[in-house]
Amino acid sequence: MSDNELGLFLRLRREAVTPAKVGLPAGPRRRTPGLRRAELATLAGVSVEYVTRLEQGRDRRPSVQVLAALADALFLTPGERVHLHRLAKGADPGFSCRGGTGPNRAVRPTVRALLERLEPAPAVLVNRLSEILACTDGYRRLAEPLGLLDGVRPSLARFVFTDPRARTVYPDWDTVADEQVAALKEGPGQTDVHVGTLMDELTVSSGEPFARRLRTLPGLPRANGVVRMAHPQVGEVRLAYEMLGLPADDDQQLVVHLPADDASAAALDRLTGRRPGALRAV
Asked: Which of 102, 120, 189, 206 would you label with 212, given CA atoms 20 to 30 Å apart?
């Protein structure tokens, strides 16, 4: 994993901003994707040397004012701004906002009751190690034949990177793998000893497919999207998902899936044995 997550994030976001977005000509000789460092420095009102130091990790303590200026220049979303400030706060080695607290594997009764109310939608509760703690029957019927629930303590990240079935289950495996790594890196990332241990395990067991993503991806997973899954009983299903964070004390996320089209809705109905139309396509 990069030991300069702040610099990595700034560089990736700089490269993602097109010159046209800030009123600059692209030009036939432009080699840099997105903005040049000098262009970002001008937009943010800082020196190009300072932007270089931040991206290279030689300065890891930018002021709040500088962070705000960089965020404005890079057109960061509210979520990206929060992430930027977290990276600046957590730049010190060993810092973790969670301290030494281990991953929460206890499921509150009201959260279990909420899962019951979500039937027949495939919904799953995970912690920061991507461990599956609880799920709806709809998710179980979807995931069990795929192997996602195998083992004493099933983990989405372990399945994606260590189970040979994963590349068949997920036709868009690269995208799913990106999101799993981004989720592990979110927040304290490797500075959390428990997340760091899992990262070390997956680096050894998966090798470069996991290690490369640790080096190059920012810890900012998408909160929603569409995932494709190839199911042995009903064929391919397209599921729209929403990741709903529980309070910080829970340190868990509820991931709810809904069919992304009518064909997927019909496939889920067949899996759950429900009447047609039990789940509508979003």
From this structure: 102
| Pairing between β-strand 123-127 and β-strand 132-135 as defined by DSSP bridges | antiparallel
Among 27-36, 225-234, 256-265, the minimum mean pLDDT is found in 27-36
Give the predicted TM-score (pTM) of the model: 0.85
Strand, helix or coil at 237?
Answer: strand
Contact 192, 128 (CB under 8 A): yes
Alpha carbon distances (Å) from 188 to 87, 99, 128, 262, 282: 8, 10, 10, 39, 34
Asked if residues 2 and 36 have their Cβ atoms less than 8 Å apart, the reply is no
| Backbone angles phi and psi of 187, in degrees to 5 | 75, -130
Q: Which of 79, 73, 64 is nearest to 10 (CA)?
A: 73
Radius of gyration of the chain from Cα atoms? 21
The pair of structure tokens assigned to 84 is 């930027």
> Tens digit of pLDDT for each residue in 25-41?
777 777 777 999 999 99
